[in-house]
Amino acid sequence: MENKEAFFYYRNWLFTLLLNSEEQDILSEFKNILDLKVGTSKHDQLLKHFLGNNSSEIFSQKRINIFEIVLQTPNSNLNQNTCFLYQQYFEIEVIFLVLYSFITLNESDTIETELNNFKDRGGRLKKGALIDNLKHKLRPYPLTHKLFEAAYNSKIRNIIGHNNYKIVGDAIESLEDSTIKLSKLEVFKSIYSMQSLNNYLLNYFSNKSILNDDLQNSGILGMAFGLEDEQPVLSIFQLSCFYHLGDFQWADKIIFSIRNNELETDFGFRPPMIGLFSEELEKKWFNPLRETKKLRIYLTPIVPRDEEDNFITLDVGEFIVPKDGKPIDLEYEINKYEP
Predict the structure, then answer these.
(1) This protein's superkingdom (predicted)?
(2) Is the dihedral angle over the CA atoms 107, 110, 111, 115 positive or is it negative?
(3) Local confidence pLDDT in tens for the 339 residues of the chain
(4) Is the dihedral of CA 330, 315, 226, 265 positive or negative?
(5) Which range of residues forms the domain containing residue 309?
(6) Do 105 and 115 contact (CB within 8 A), yes or no?
(7) CA–CA separation, 124 vs 121, rounded Å?
(8) Are residues 168 and 177 in contact, defined by beta-carbon separation less than 8 angstroms?
(9) Are residues 54 and 182 in the same domain?
């Protein structure tokens, strides 16, 4: 990827692409909660607060990478590491702060970031009370509410959070009287739900921090030489997330530079694309091209392939083409350098 902004933009897009339909619906509702007042000065102020004061925690290296699947439930054992991972996730407080602050803005048009009513005399956050409050406030948002309930299951919170448990086979029981029993599935569901909420939070703020005004020329992954009604055409393949950002900024003309068996193609962005040149390409494509004044180019969106039957193969992987490319006719220049 050409630059860091483009990489992060692509990463966030790929994250949403990998979600199943149910997860995409939850993410959409989650973002709607945080964006209900988008465009207002107070929303801007709240965004600035969290991106400024809390960015180190939101983008912390302690978090599991947004693409990384840490737990595969059927193949994982319930052990002390599982409980430790739960406690690590439970200690991430910024998810509570963000949800409470944005919901408060939505309900009363006020900015509340201190949450003093949910702190003890030492200034520590009373997470239990805040979690219960958020469960109530999230009821109008059923998908997020269900995920939050699963993430912060009060039974799991009480026995693991207070170190009052023992592991018995594939279950967790309360230490003293075994009156509380939790299955392996319940525990892993809670951990996965917390991971999902934190990933959604990271995705939201990462998108807000990326400047995508100048990314419309990013994400070019390959090209293909073809013929259309016996006339040479060039297909340029661009990742769909960048394709939809706006008009590609073309140069005045396409420049082909041939050196021995190497072909350099300059579309007007840096660096140019470099590939192999052959006598067959010269005969079947470049010779007919020299008979025309302009070259027909198709800028074509692509998406990484999952299991689709129809796909194209580029040097960097397999992709599907969701829609036909946009045509443009440009002047060209062919420079062939002798060895």
Answers:
(1) Bacteria
(2) negative
(3) 457 788 888 888 888 888 999 999 999 999 999 999 999 999 999 999 998 866 556 665 444 443 343 444 445 678 888 888 888 888 889 999 999 999 999 999 999 999 999 999 999 999 999 999 999 999 999 999 999 999 998 888 888 877 778 888 888 888 877 678 888 888 889 989 998 999 899 889 988 887 777 888 899 999 999 999 999 999 999 999 999 988 888 888 999 999 989 999 998 766 788 999 999 999 999 999 999 999 999 999 999 998 899 999 998 899 999 999 999 999 999 999 876
(4) positive
(5) 220-337
(6) no
(7) 7
(8) no
(9) yes
- Show the tokens assigned to 314: 């580029």
Tokens encoding 215: 């990314």
The CA–CA distances, whole Å, from 177 to 98, 165, 174, 242, 280 equal 37, 10, 6, 58, 80
Decide which of 145, 176, 209 is a domain's last residue: 209
Burial of residue 187, with CB atoms counted within 10 A of its CB: 0-12 exposed, 13-18 middle, 19 or more buried: buried
Count of domains observed in the chain: 2
Residues 137 and 148: their CA atoms lie apart, in Å, by 11
Contact present, 295 and 329 (Cβ < 8 Å): yes
- Asked if 127 and 133 count as a contact pair (C-beta separation under 8 A), the reply is no
Do residues 130 and 99 both lie within one domain? Answer: yes
In this structure, is residue 214 part of a structural domain? no
Sign of CA dihedral 212, 217, 222, 227: positive
Residue 215 lies in a domain: no
**Angle subtended at Cα 279 by Cα 273 and Cα 280, rounded to the nearest 5 degrees:** 90
State if pTM tops 0.85: no
Question: 3-class SS at 307?
Answer: coil
Residues 163 and 289 in one domain: no
d(Cα 86, Cα 192) in Å, to the nearest integer? 9
d(C-alpha 309, C-alpha 307), whole Å: 6
Radius of gyration over every alpha carbon of the chain, rounded to an integer in angstroms: 27
Would you give the DSSP letter of residue 334?
E
